[in-house]
Amino acid sequence: MLMHVEPSHSFDLAAYLGSRRARIDATLESLIALEEPRVLFEAMRYSLLAGGKRLRPILCLAACELSGARAEVALPTACAIEMIHTMSLIHDDLPAMDDADCRRGRLASHKMHGEALAILAGDSLLAHSFEVIARHTSGVPAKRILAVIAELGRAAGPRGLAGGQVEDLTHEGKRCVSVETLEDIHHRKTGALLTASVLSGALLGGADGPTKGRLRRYAERLGLAFQIVDDILDVTSTCEALGKSVGRDASAQKATYPRVLGLAESTRLAEALIADAKDELGCFGERAAPLVALAESTIAAIR
Amino acid sequence: MLMHVEPSHSFDLAAYLGSRRARIDATLESLIALEEPRVLFEAMRYSLLAGGKRLRPILCLAACELSGARAEVALPTACAIEMIHTMSLIHDDLPAMDDADCRRGRLASHKMHGEALAILAGDSLLAHSFEVIARHTSGVPAKRILAVIAELGRAAGPRGLAGGQVEDLTHEGKRCVSVETLEDIHHRKTGALLTASVLSGALLGGADGPTKGRLRRYAERLGLAFQIVDDILDVTSTCEALGKSVGRDASAQKATYPRVLGLAESTRLAEALIADAKDELGCFGERAAPLVALAESTIAAIR
Q1: Within a 10 A sphere around the Cβ of A3, how many other Cβ atoms?
Q2: d(CA A279, CA A262)
Q3: ipTM greater than 0.90, yes or no?
Q4: Is B92 part of a structural domain of the chain?
Q5: Residue A250's CB: how many other CB atoms inside 10 A?
Q6: How far apart are CA A242 and CA A246, in angstroms?
Q7: Structural domain for A220, as ranges
Q8: Please, which residues 85-144 of chain B have a Cβ atom closer than 8 Å to chain A?
Q9: A163 touches chain B (CB under 8 A)
Q10: Residue B103: enclosing H or E segment and its boundaries?
Q11: How many structural domains comprise chain A?
Q12: Which residues of A180-196 are buried (b: 16+ CB within 10 A; e: fewer)?
């Protein structure tokens, strides 16, 4: 089964990621120029331009290209997705939630700017993200753009990020958390936006039904694997290496995969999910090389 | 000048508002059914279905009709606007911001549900609002819907609500605030969403350029008058009458019109703005009766 989906040995993931990141960072920078009130735009830029991996926007651009369009048409949406993701990081770090001090290798927003500005910078990024998609996407039928907005609105809202954070907080400190509950939390907290990133790219690229189905299943598996890896690294890594607070899951008695399944079984599950994700893309051959390589790189950190 | 714009004596504003409110409330109720996580959907519904005046959605529907389309096409957008407005109320009331206990005659969201849920209920309403517009608007060209989303994203973001709240907090406790600063704060905090409500209705209704211009100027004047009246009522009214905390502006040394201009001059200014707002609609005759009557009702509370 796997023979179809091995990435070409000529595919240079590091170079690919570097050039995509540079493109996304430059566009993000231009989309949030410094205006009045300056403190607010500075707070938005502080968190947004802090050098994240840009995994979600890169997935969006790659899915758009795989579906047959130029990556450019998905660039505003890719940047909007990073704004939504950053909003959720800023709000999740607040004292009333995870109370984290460290994010992307810097002080968390509320530690740097105070709570009020952190909340409003998050709100601003969320509102601005939809404006960016609606105003800056060109070369695509308007109906497709509306479908993207509906998808991302859902992924950011109570059925996605916000709902996942509520469930996460609800299950903190509980002794028994089932694998089903854990999967539901992670599906909302990570899977929803990651899947929406891939699907948005597919929609903008004009993917047909079967392609959208394959990309959706790829993204769902990747999203869950990604969160399991994140849980594992919170146990095994350091703040310096990750650029965010670690060990908090255990101290807050968060529902995590290592806690419920153990480290070894969690690692095995992440590997299996990535193999399944790659399998979905077998039929696309070389066109899927970036997405296949991205899936593999997700679990490289725990190998 | 004013002879063109007096509302018809046959126009029954109370009946009009009652039927519009019922329609909007029923749609809002259906747009946020109770799902998991239940506590989150309950928190969203608690603030959204607390019986607000629904001024912004009613303005949106009225502008759509004045522009020549059925109000129905603007109903999802009208409801989305109320979600955005409610989000800003929930977040503005948080301890890190205005720290208000009372809203729409009930405990503020953070007092009822705790800070984390209040923040996430606000985030959820904001994200959901854009999904609602993109998914539920029908009978309108997709390009117009994108223009509405761009307009509302701007009004909710750093150039609108969020930016206005930042400026408001920045100027708290300052001795000297100029009328220009005050106007800028109010333009963002109230004017931006109110103007976007009217403009969204105009866009969905297919208004031509001159009609959009007149409606925009009407809305800008109405929005400023509305905020001045709000400032005045904070000085002269009670929590029971308003359904929200009063006297907070003075105790927090907020920048307000009564503080900068005095009560008498503030009242005169509000009256003049409403007269100008009505003037803009003179050429539409009877079609503008609801918008004219709405403008008049805004200042009735301070007469």
Answers
A1: 6
A2: 26
A3: yes
A4: yes
A5: 13
A6: 8
A7: 11-300
A8: 87, 91, 94, 96-97, 114-117, 119-124, 126-135, 141-143
A9: yes
A10: strand B102-103
A11: 1
A12: ebbbbbbbbbbbbbbbb
The CATH code of the domain that includes B200 is: 1.10.600.10
Q: How many C-beta atoms surround the C-beta of residue A258 within 10 A?
A: 20
CA-to-CA distance for B192 and B156, rounded, in angstroms?
8
Disruptive mutation site among B146, B154, B169 for chain A (greatest number of A CBs within 10 Å): B146
Q: Is the peptide bond before B76 cis (omega within 30 degrees of 0)?
A: no
Q: Considering the domain boundaries, does residue B2 fall inside one?
A: no
pLDDT values of chain A reduced to their tens digit, one per residue, 303 residues? 344 444 455 799 999 999 999 999 999 999 999 999 999 999 999 999 998 899 999 999 999 999 999 999 999 999 999 999 999 999 999 999 999 999 988 999 999 999 999 999 999 999 999 999 999 999 999 999 999 999 999 999 999 999 999 999 999 888 788 889 989 999 999 999 999 999 999 999 999 999 999 999 999 999 999 999 999 998 887 666 667 776 767 667 778 899 899 999 999 999 999 999 999 999 999 999 999 999 999 998 888
Q: Does B1 fall in a domain?
A: no
Q: How many CB atoms lie within 10 A of CB A9?
A: 6
Q: How many CA atoms lie within 13 A of B118 on its CB side?
A: 26
Q: How does DSSP classify residue A172?
A: T
